[in-house]
């Protein structure tokens, strides 16, 4: 069997690297993940006795990221008939020779510790995991199956203080590894003009993000607020074609210490290409049922909501699902699909911030003068990063809601 892998020439040195550690990092749109998926699928087809582990901070984020790219590579070489994807276990089996790709998230430490016999590992969004996570992952690769063992880390260099930089790139480091920094400019032939324009426009709205995501440089601590207030907008005109989602970060623990839960309903209009905040809530709940009441009431007032997103622990899913369904039946409100997500706010913040800076986000008219919205807006206005340790329930809900809206494919471009 012969398959044609169209490898971006800039990545060829890493394609043939057999170093134990390979760091593939740089800006957004540089093709890091696609190249890594190409190398893994190539090894799956031409080498024997592979059990390859793919890892992210949370396993539930893999289907629409890591495995979507792996399957895209398989389609691009015309090898769909040679692979079987198992959605329930998030694994990929090569029918040609028995090689397997399995997955794990660092949110399930015990399962990660139980994995053995791994031949190679891909850590996607490696800056999201801790150094102790990495140490555990490194211990999983001890197969003795006769193939070279390799850990590939793909990431954007978001913070110059990150453990990855200290461990691999500091002058005191003794780790032997191969690395390559790339940017969207190295991958321009595979990008749309609209995407390139989006990356380049970061220079105008956030210089720190531009250095990270356009130039692939290590990020420095930001002193600027993420959502500049001169870009805040309100409108009394709400388009009829809006499709929206509701997102919140619930907590089964009692909110006795002043912690609050934020709810954000964010929608997108195809006709205007703008985002609309349709409803928000920021308050403490002494009982999970009270939070569910609020969600059902908001859903009743916002018929455009097509999906509900929870930042939830896997063990809590059945509890929330039961509560939501029970209250919705009592109040005769039909709820849409409920998704349990695990997002990294700091990693995703650039997406919502770019739309904000381009003045594409609108709040309802009079929103800023209503007392019940003041704390929500104040948290947005003073947000830089979750590492600041300030109250961030509102920006967390807004940023993750923005991502949830996109992940459900409710945002469509006219181009």
In angstroms, what is the radius of gyration? 22 Å
- Structural class, by secondary structure, is alpha/beta
Detail the poorly predicted runs. Answer: none
CATH level 3 topology of the largest domain: Rossmann fold
Approximate helicity band: 25-40%
The number of strands is: 15
Distance between the termini: 39 Å
CATH H level, superfamily name of the largest domain = P-loop containing nucleotide triphosphate hydrolases
- Per DSSP, the total helix count is 14
Main sheet overview: 8 strands, mixed
Physical arrangement of strands within the biggest beta sheet: 3-4-5-2-6-7-1-8
Total individual domains: 2
Q: How would you characterize the overall build of this protein?
A:
It is built from 14 helices and 15 strands. The chain has an eight-stranded mixed β-sheet. It starts with 11 loop residues before the first helix and ends in an 8-residue tail after the last helix. The chain folds into two domains: 9-205, 3-Layer(aba) Sandwich (Rossmann fold), CATH 3.40.50.300; 223-407, Nucleotidyltransferase, domain 5 (2-Layer Sandwich), CATH 3.30.420.280. By secondary structure, the protein is an alpha/beta fold. Strand 6, helix 5 and strand 7 (150-155) form a beta-alpha-beta unit.
């Amino acid at each position: 069997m012969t398959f044609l892998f169209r490898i971006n020439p800039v990545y060829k040195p890493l394609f043939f690297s057999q170093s134990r550690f390979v760091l593939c990092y740089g800006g957004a749109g540089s093709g890091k993940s696609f190249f890594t998926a190409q190398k893994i699928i190539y090894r799956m087809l031409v080498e024997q006795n592979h059990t390859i582990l793919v890892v992210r901070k949370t396993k539930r984020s893999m289907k629409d990221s890591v495995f979507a790219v792996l399957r895209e590579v398989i389609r691009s070489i015309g090898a769909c008939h040679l692979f079987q994807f198992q959605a329930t276990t998030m694994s990929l089996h090569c029918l040609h020779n028995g090689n397997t790709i399995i997955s794990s998230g660092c949110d399930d430490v015990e399962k990660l510790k139980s994995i053995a016999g791994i031949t190679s590992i891909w850590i996607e969004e490696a800056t999201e995991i801790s150094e102790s996570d990495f140490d555990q992952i490194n211990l999983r690769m001890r197969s003795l199956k006769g193939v070279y063992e390799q850990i590939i880390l793909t990431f954007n260099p978001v913070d110059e203080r990150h453990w990855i930089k200290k461990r691999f790139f500091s002058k005191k480091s003794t780790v032997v590894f191969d690395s390559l920094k790339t940017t969207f400019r190295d991958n321009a032939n595979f990008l749309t003009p609209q995407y390139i324009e989006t990356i380049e426009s970061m220079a105008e709205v956030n210089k720190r993000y531009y250095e990270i995501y356009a130039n692939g440089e290590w990020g420095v601590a930001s002193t600027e607020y993420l959502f500049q207030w001169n870009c805040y907008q309100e409108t009394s005109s709400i388009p009829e074609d809006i499709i929206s989602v509701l997102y919140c970060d619930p907590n089964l623990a009692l909110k006795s210490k002043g912690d609050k839960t934020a709810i954000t309903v964010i929608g997108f209009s195809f006709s205007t290409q703008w985002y609309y905040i349709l409803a928000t809530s920021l308050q403490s709940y002494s009982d999970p049922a009270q939070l569910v009441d609020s969600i059902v009431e908001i859903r009743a007032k916002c018929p455009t909501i097509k999906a509900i997103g929870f930042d939830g622990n896997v063990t809590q899913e059945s509890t929330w699902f039961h509560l939501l369904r029970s209250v919705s039946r009592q109040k005769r409100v039909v709820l849409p699909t409920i998704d349990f997500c695990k997002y990294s706010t700091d990693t995703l913040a650039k997406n919502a911030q770019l739309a904000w800076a381009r003045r594409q986000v609108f709040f309802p008219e009079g929103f800023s003068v209503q007392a019940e919205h003041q704390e929500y807006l104040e948290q947005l206005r003073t947000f830089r990063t979750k590492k600041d340790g300030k109250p961030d329930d509102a920006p967390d809900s807004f940023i993750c809601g923005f991502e949830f809206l996109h992940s459900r494919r409710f945002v469509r471009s006219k181009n």
